[in-house]
Structures are given as structure tokens and as C-alpha cells.
Design goal:
Blueprint: E1 11-14, E2 21-24, H1 51-64
Antiparallel strand pairs: 1-2
Length: 65
């Protein structure tokens, strides 16, 4: 059985929050793997956040805790 995520080219995405374009690499190292803050994968049809928006969300969650 093969892993469908292997050999996938990096995706160009627009951030769900601000519209900034950024790259996402499902089959290799991605910038989000180096982030301390993790979010569950979206299940509502939305997509990922850019690095800046993910970091802003992490700060909001840290302030609320």
C-alpha cells in the first residue's frame, strides 16, 4: 500500500485569516512542523493559516490560558 501524501508537490495556499500566500509541504518538511503551537487539521473545509496568523493565534491562546 502506498502513502498518498508521499511525493506530493508543495502547495501554494492563501491564509484563511489574512489572504497571504504561503507554502505547505504535506510530503516533506513544512514550516509548521517547527512551530511550538499546534492546531488540529481543519474539518470544516477551511485550510491552514500562514506563519504570522498561526503565531498570533498562539499568543491569543496563551493569553487566554
Amino acid at each position: 500500500m502506498t502513502n498518498r501524501l508521499e511525493n506530493q508537490p508543495p502547495r501554494r495556499l492563501a491564509c484563511e485569516a489574512c489572504g497571504t500566500e504561503f507554502g505547505c509541504n504535506l510530503s516533506g518538511p513544512c514550516w509548521c512542523n517547527d512551530e511550538a503551537f499546534r492546531m488540529p487539521l481543519p474539518v470544516d473545509g477551511s485550510d491552514c493559516l500562514c506563519p504570522d496568523c498561526l503565531r498570533k493565534l498562539a499568543k491569543q491562546h496563551a493569553g487566554a490560558a
